[in-house]
Design brief:
The complex is a heterodimer of chains A (287) and B (781). With 287 residues, chain A is of the alpha+beta class. Chain A has helices at 14-23, 36-41, 77-82, 84-89, 91-98, 103-108, 111-117, 124-131, 148-151, 227-233, 240-247, 264-286, and strands at 7-9, 27-30, 49-52, 62-65, 68-72, 134-139, 142-147, 152-154, 157-158, 165-172, 178-186, 193-203, 209-217, 224-225. Chain A has three domains: 7-53, Uridine Diphospho-n-acetylenolpyruvylglucosamine Reductase, domain 2 (2-Layer Sandwich); 62-172, Uridine Diphospho-n-acetylenolpyruvylglucosamine Reductase, domain 3 (2-Layer Sandwich); 179-286, Enolase-like, domain 1, CATH 3.30.390.50. Helix content of chain A is 34%, strand content 26%. In chain A, the strands form four sheets. Chain A has a five-stranded antiparallel β-sheet, sandwiched between helices. Chain A has a four-stranded antiparallel β-sheet with strand order 11-12-13-14, with helices on both faces. In chain A, strands 1-3-2 form a three-stranded parallel β-sheet, covered by helices on one side. Helices cover 28% and strands 24% of the residues of chain B. Chain B has 19 helices and 28 strands. In chain B, the strands form seven sheets. In chain B, strands 3-5-1-12-9-10-11 form a seven-stranded mixed β-sheet, sandwiched between helices. Chain B has a five-stranded mixed β-sheet with strand order 7-15-14-13-8, with helices on both faces. A four-stranded mixed β-sheet of chain B has the order 18-26-27-28, sandwiched between helices. The chains are: A alpha+beta (287), B alpha+beta (781).
Chain lengths: 287, 781
């Protein structure tokens, strides 16, 4: 209930935030606080300082452009779930946002906070991998881009450097004849994903699968692509049988987690079931 | 008008205060010069304490004192009491703070008192405890099989052995057409009241007066237990349970924490507050259930159940909590006959010590364990004789009776009509149509399951002499004081306690109904030993059948006292005066009447009554019922199981209950709704997991799945009323029926859905993975 002592800063700009991070060893960025604050109250995390980015107005918001949709890191899950722009462009993100926690969490929690925290069972990472999102991180030397595929390094570990602030998430422009969907099997207590799968698919002129991309969260220590299933689908006509056959390979090579909620074997099975469901929905949207 | 108040839906009078955030809970209490306490809890399930070094903690600015088990012992404080003494019980002493050994994760080791909460918490990190970890035992059955010893006092970790039976179960099993053997588990649950526990201990050095404000369900019992434990005299002790945010049984007991707070307050001469954190609540507040049972059920080919034989290992945790020995014995084993005519039942129980959080009553307390086991057994018999589960129940239900059905074991049921409940339920849901829909769905690869549960349970403790003969350390009568004021307004003091039950509404309804007043004219007070007469408190659905009955009787006495006054005011003979519709008048002459208000005024400012007539208008009553009450009912659940994932969706829930005479239908519905949710939680989600070292793996809401509204359907419920003959209201307890009935109804529904897969039993909770494994013939873990 009572965190250990910490300093608190509320910078007005990203630059100021970066400076504060550099000055304070073991500082943590506070965004929505829905993962960090409980950890602090349980004294599982004892940062020396909190750099509260909540007052940096430029960090929140959704912008649509021809090149894609940009989501500010401080945008809440509730805002994302309710955004028509996102639903029209990439409904998998809406589905992931709407499936996070409960109303309270969705109203406070932010996409940047969730991605930077990189909980192995968080929803967004599956979508980011499947749709090929690109992140912007700002550090002392300025901004750099990180591809989603290079971002998730392990449980609670990302490519972000200690002094960097994740500022925005870019979802690439919609491609014709493509569709995506996120399907989740929730852990009944936390509502995190025991397994969550995002499928993205692009059909060619013959309505065969030109390209498939499948992101899986919850199953392993970090979100990952189901490449064997992607390969199994590409070039195929995406009928139920082909999708089922491909989904059977979706957990190939995955080192699935085992805990009190699901064994590794059950998680692997759920990866197949959720992949099948996500792929069917994505194909429908691509048509 | 007046006679309609009992039985009508009156909105809960406590709700405006509670839902606008104006409740006064223990943690809202702030006293001048108050200090704050935090408890250091053992991270080990079993360890020897080699040393405790609190010197660094004591040096932290703001820290006032650190207490250890030795300090409590030196102050002459006794171990925590066990209030239900079975023959040959082996009590492992439970010091309020561990002395040499810690016995579960969460066992208190030291307490820090500081100027503020955060400092107290910081100081905990500065206490160095040198532990020598010992091997732990966590399984209630394996505890008896050469596991590490929790207490030297209890060989093989057996705290108590209990057996009870009726008829001859062994002979009946031998002569049965068939016998089914099944191991049935009833998993451990965490009560998780919305408000965690809290205490404000206030010792006043100048007077030696001690006040304990804390989250409890039974202030007078807490005061007695507190006095016996601390040696602080009962008459100089006041216990206040202000607004309490739910208990479900977990706040009946005297806990270690308030004892430590008492010593801290007495030592420092300052009020001391302690408030439990949620993660502490998971570990340091009692748990419920945790039975392992081996069941043998004998039956005839026609579905008649002839015998039930049960062995149960009831995990009691590391220490016996206040009423723990009662739960898996008298509230469990003699209820295994259930609502059926089974003539041969035998049950033996081993209450065992393990290195886990102590287990005590949790909503239903013993009856959910008995009902779940029995209802699973009935469905197993239905499967074996290939009969519909509804038909097997009809075959075995006890026929309607108005009073005194003698079971084959200890209890005599008060009144009931179990077949009518089942019939009403089946009609309500159109059962034959449901079954047809189920068949049609199966053809489309959809797995729908229908589950029944017919139950009877025991409430309204207790006939005092019976309770004492069964081991109660305190009698369980209930009191009421009805005090009429000069203006005719009424205060009611009750020894029972509301922490969600709605006494402020229902008890006022009883009084207003009798006196011909409006509910607004009656104020109900509870929860303060300085205000209310002695009473045993609220648990086991006893408030209405015992506490409400006491209120009713006291009100009748007020009416009789008023009659003496009215007699003089009417210048009539007492035998001719009647009281009806809030007025006294001579039989046959209602136009010449004195109102209750006029009598109340006369009682305080006499004008007409002679000097020798006793003035004032109040009466008290202690109610000691002749028997328990036995609510009963029939519940039905419909589920759909996803064959790909094993996920269970509860799609429909219907219930018919008999809780005797209903005072407030809305409140009884509310009790049922909440109770059903809790029972569904046990069936599908809630699970308390310890690893083999005794670490609690499900110690937060991130891992312990509570039932939530969005996972539940709208309930359909109805009632029949067979008034209880054992109290003047005809009421039976209504607080626990939903919890008791719903777990087996849902479990039976899930297993019914899996019938095409040949599944006969899965242990609780029916998680997606377990269901999936059962469907796909994988080993169920």
């Amino acid at each position: 209930m009572f965190p250990a002592k910490f300093e608190y800063y509320a910078p007005k700009s990203v630059k100021e935030a970066v400076t504060l991070l550099a000055k304070n060893k073991n500082a943590k960025i506070l965004a929505g606080g829905h993962s960090l604050l409980p950890a602090m109250k349980l004294r599982l995390a004892e940062p020396s300082a909190l750099v509260d980015v909540g007052k940096i107005k430029t960090l929140a918001g959704i912008k649509s452009a021809k090149s894609g949709t940009t989501i500010g890191a401080l945008t809440t899950h509730a805002t994302i779930a309710a955004s028509d722009a996102i639903r029209n462009h990439c409904p998998a993100i809406s589905e992931a946002a709407a499936a996070i926690g409960d109303w309270q969490v969705r109203n406070r929690g932010t996409i940047g906070g969730s991605l930077a925290h990189a909980d192995p069972a968080a929803d967004y990472p599956a979508v980011m991998l499947a749709v090929g999102a690109e992140f912007t991180a700002v550090g002392a030397k300025g901004a750099r881009k990180i591809k989603a595929g290079d971002f998730f390094k392990g449980a609670l570990t990302t490519a972000l450097k200690p002094n960097e602030v994740l500022t925005q998430i870019k979802i690439p422009a919609h491609q014709p004849s493509s569709g995506c969907a996120y399907v989740k099997f929730a852990q009944p207590a936390s509502r995190f994903a025991i397994v969550g799968v995002c499928a993205w698919v692009k059909l060619d002129a013959n309505r065969n699968v030109e390209k498939a991309s499948i992101g899986v969260t919850g199953a392993c220590a970090n979100a990952t692509r189901a490449r064997a299933a992607e390969k199994a689908l590409e070039g195929k006509k995406p009928d139920d049988a082909a999708i089922k056959a491909a989904a059977a390979h979706s957990s190939d090579g995955m080192d699935c987690l085992s805990d009190i909620h699901a064994s590794a074997e059950y998680r692997a099975h759920l990866v197949s079931v959720m992949t099948e469901r996500a792929m069917k929905a994505a194909v429908e949207r691509a048509k | 008008m007046a006679t309609q108040i009992i039985g009508s839906t009156v909105k809960r009078r406590e709700d405006p205060r509670l839902i606008t955030g104006n409740g006064k809970y223990t943690d809202n209490m702030t006293l001048p010069h108050m200090a704050y306490m935090a408890i250091l809890r053992s991270p080990h399930a079993h360890a020897r304490i080699k040393s405790i070094d609190a010197s660094k903690a004591k040096k932290l600015a703001g820290v006032l004192a650190v207490f250890t088990g030795k300090d409590l012992k030196d102050a002459g404080i006794n171990p925590l009491p066990v209030g239900w003494l079975l023959p040959e019980i082996k009590i492992g002493p439970h010091p309020a703070l561990a002395i040499d050994t810690v016995r579960y994760v969460g066992d208190g080791v030291a307490a820090v008192v500081a100027e503020d909460r955060a400092t107290a918490k910081d100081a905990l990190d500065l206490i160095d405890v040198d532990y020598e970890p010992l091997p732990a035992n966590v399984d209630g059955e394996k505890a008896t099989q050469g596991a590490p010893q929790v207490h030297a006092e209890a060989a093989n970790n057996v705290a108590f052995y209990f057996k009870i039976g009726g008829g001859d179960a062994d002979a009946a099993l031998k002569s049965a057409d068939g016998v089914i053997k099944q191991r049935i588990l009833n998993q451990r649950l965490v009560p998780n009241a919305m408000e965690p526990r809290a205490a404000v201990a206030h010792y006043e050095p100048a007077t030696g007066q001690f006040t304990l404000y804390n989250t409890n369900q039974n202030p007078h019992i807490i005061r007695v237990l507190f006095a016996l434990t601390t040696g602080h005299p009962e008459h100089k002790t006041r216990v206040v349970a202000p607004d309490v945010g739910g208990g479900f049984g977990s706040k009946i007991y005297l806990y270690a924490d308030e004892i430590v707070a008492y010593l801290a307050s007495k030592t420092l001469g300052r009020p001391v507050k302690w408030t439990e954190e949620r993660s502490e609540n998971f570990k340091a507040t009692t748990h419920g259930r945790d039975h392992i049972s081996d069941v043998e059920v004998g039956y005839k080919k026609d579905g008649t159940i002839t015998a039930l034989k049960v062995k149960t290992w009831a995990n009691q945790g590391a220490y016996l909590s206040t009423f723990a020995p009662l739960i898996p014995t008298f509230l469990y084993a003699p209820m295994l006959q259930g609502p059926y005519t089974i003539e041969n039942v035998f049950c033996e129980v081993w209450g065992t010590y393990t290195n886990t959080t102590p287990v005590d009553a949790y909503r239903g307390a013993g009856r959910p364990e008995a009902t779940y086991l029995l209802e699973r057994a009935v469905d197993l018999v239905a499967g074996a004789v290939e009969m519909d589960p509804a038909d097997v129940r009809k075959k075995n239900l006890i026929p309607a009776f108005k009073e005194n059905y003698k079971t084959c074991m200890a209890y005599v049921y008060d009144s009931g009509d179990y077949p009518a409940e089942l019939e009403k339920l089946l009609k309500m849901v159109d059962y034959p149509k449901l079954r047809r829909e189920q068949q049609a769905a199966r053809k489309q690869g959809k797995y729908i399951g229908i589950g029944l549960s017919t139950y009877v349970e025991i409430t309204g403790a207790a006939p005092a002499q019976v309770a004492v003969s069964l081991g109660a350390g305190a009698a369980l009568v209930e009191s009421a004081l009805v005090r009429v004021m000069p203006t005719g307004k009424v205060q009611v003091m009750t020894g029972s306690h509301s922490h969600g039950q709605g006494h402020e509404t229902t008890f006022a309804q009883i009084v207003a109904d009798q006196l011909g007043l409006n509910v607004e004219d009656v104020e109900v007070m509870h929860g303060d030993t300085d205000k209310v007469p002695f009473g045993a408190g609220t648990y086991g659905s006893r408030s209405q059948p015992v506490g409400g009955a006491a209120v009713y009787i006291a009100t009748q006495r007020v009416i009789e006292r008023g009659k003496k006054l009215a007699t003089h005011m009417l210048e009539a003979a007492e035998a001719d005066v009647v009281f009806e519709g809030g007025k006294y008048f001579v039989q046959g002459s209602p136009s010449k009447a004195v109102s209750f208000g006029e009598v109340a005024l006369e009682a305080h400012w006499p004008r007409k009554v002679p000097a020798d007539v006793e003035l004032g208008l109040e009466a008290s009553a202690f109610f000691n019922p002749a028997n328990f009450t036995f609510p009963a009912g029939a519940h039905l659940a419909v589920v759909e199981v996803d064959p790909d994932t094993g996920k269970v969706d509860l799609t429909r829930y219907a219930a018919v209950d008999d809780v005797g005479k209903v005072i407030n239908p809305m409140i009884v519905d509310g009790q049922l709704h909440g109770g059903v949710a809790q029972g569904v939680g046990q069936a599908l989600w809630e699970n308390t997991v310890y690893d083999e070292n005794g670490q609690l793996l499900s110690g937060s809401f991130m891992d312990y799945a509570m039932p939530i509204a969005s996972n539940l359907p709208l309930y359909e419920n109805a009632r029949i009323e067979t008034p209880s003959p054992v109290n003047p209201l005809g009421a039976k307890g209504a607080g626990e029926t939903g919890t008791i009935a719903s777990t087996p109804a849902v479990a039976n529904a899930v297993i019914d859905a899996l019938k095409p897969f040949g599944v006969k039993h899965i242990d609780l909770p029916l998680t997606s993975e377990k269901v999936w494994r059962a469907m796909h013939s994988r080993v169920v873990k």
